[in-house]
Structure formats: structure tokens, C-alpha cells
Amino acid sequence: KREGRLAWNYAKQLLKDRKMKPKEIREHLAEINEEAIIYDNLEEALVGIGHRFGMQGIAIYDLDKVFKCLEKELGPDITDEEVIEYFDYNVIGTWAGEHTPMFIETF
User: Fold this and answer.
1) Is the whole model's pTM more than 0.90, yes or no?
2) How many angstroms separate the CA atoms of 57 and 100, rounded?
């Protein structure tokens, strides 16, 4: 395993001038952190890998895309409030330690 600064330099070189698809992000994340939590049903919302000092990379999801995935999964009759409740309880409310994904808002 690559750790610390070496991992960051490795990742920068590997990803330089490259736009990755969710499947590629998943594969790369599995290489650098096999314990990272990845939600199968949210693959379309997987947009990157987060790095924190002294810790392994984690999955980063786009919050808007997450809600679109959940709306699609839960069906056409689902209300916005039900999607938010599902997300709060089943996704963001599931803490799995340092390998838990991060959800970002884009502006």
C-alpha cells in the first residue's frame, strides 16, 4: 500500500489529464483503500476520491446525483420528503468509521 505523500503523488500522476467514469473511480479506490465504503446503487453519483491527512482515500458522491439515483431506485411515486428521509436514514446516517463516504454539494 502507498501511504501519505507518496500516495498523493502516485494518484496525481495516475489521474493527470484524465476524466474518470464512476466504474474507473471505483476500481482505483479499491486499489488504494480496499475498505472504502461504496454504494452499488449510487454508482452514477460517484464523482471522485477524497483524501485526508494520515487517512486512506474515501468515495465522494455528488449529492444532486445521489438524489436522482434514489428517486429512480425508489420509484416514480416517491415524494421529495420520502427521498430525503430515505437518504438521511439509509445513506448518510450510516456511519462506518473512517471509510465512510463523503457527499458534496456542487454550486
Assistant:
1) no
2) 10
